[in-house]
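re the bet — no i am not wrong, look at it urself. input seq straight from the record:
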Amino acid sequence: MPELGKVDRDFFDEYIYPNLGADRDDVTLGPQHGVDFGVVETGGAAVAMATDPIFVMPSLGFERAAWFAVHILMSDVAVSGIPPSHLSVDFNLPPEITNEEFATVWETFDREARAFDVSVVTGHTGRYEGCNYPMVGGGTAVSVGDPDDLVRPDGAQVGDRVVVTKGPAIEATGLLSIQFESLMRGDVADDDVDAATDRFYDMSPVQDALTAAAAGPVTAMHDATECGIYGGLYEMARSAGVGIELRRDDVPVLPGIEAACDFFDIDPWISISEGTLLATVDPSGVDDVLAALEGEDIPAAEVGEVVEGSGLVVDGEPTDHPGVDPFWGAMAEYMAELQE
C-alpha cells in the first residue's frame, strides 16, 4: 500500500479482491482496480453505484469545498452513462465544525443534488474525536436506468476513438493553486495564477459524461482521478483487454495548468485530474460527441485510438501505469511550507 493515496493493483489483488462477500447472480459488474463503479441488475433495471470519501477542505471556503465534495460522489456513477439518481451520505465530522459551517456544506449538497435530480435517501451525521479534515466521511451515489443505456468500463473495442475533455491535471491545479495561492504569487505570473485558480470549477466530469453518453455511441468512460490521464487510459485499456494509443499534442491543455504544475514540480500527465473525462467512442459517433460537448462549452478533442494489444502507448512509446500520484506529496510538502 502506498503511504498516500489509493492502493495499487497488487495490494487490491492480494487483500481486497479475494474477500468480497457472497457471490450473487444480480451483481453484473463487481469491484475491479481502476474501475469507477459496480452494477446490480434488479427488476429489469441497472443499478450502478460508487462509493468515495467525503473530501472537505475548509481552506477552500465551505461552499466551494462542499461543491467539490458532492461532485466527487456523483462523478463515478455518471461515467456509467446513466444519470445519478440517489445519494447516501455519511458525515464523520471533526468536533470543531460549527453548526453554521455544516449548514453551508449541507445546503450546497442539497443545491447540487437538486440540479441533477438526485435524491438523498439515507445517511449518518455526527461529530467525533479523531476525525479530521479533509476526509470527513463517505458517500455512495446510485444511478438507476435501462441496462441498454449502461456504458461499461470494460467496453472499449479495437477501432474506437479516444476522446478527452479538459485535459491534464485539472484537480491538481485547481486545488493546489487555491490552497497555496499566496506561495505562488510573486514566483508565477499573476495571469497564470488567476488561470490556475479558475480551474477549480472544472473539477467535475458529471456533465461531461452525461453529455457524451447521450450523444454516443460511447463504449467506455473513466474519470481521470488518481494518476491522471496516463493512469486512467492505462486502466481503461487493461479493463477491456486492448491497447490505447495516445497523441499527446492533441490533448487540450487549459490555461494555468502548465504554470501550476511547473511551480509545484509535478507531472501534469500523471497527476490527479477529477473533472477530466476519458471516453472511447465508436467512430460513427465521434463528431456527434464532440459537437455535444462543444454545445455545453466543455473543451474536448479526439486524441487517439483503441488498438489490438495491451497497455498505453504515448506518441509511439509504451507507457506504464504511473503507480503513485505526485499530487499527494506536493500537497503535504507545501502544506508544511505554508505552516512554517
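see?? The chain has two domains: 22-149, 161-339. told u. also The chain has a mean pLDDT of 95. so pay up
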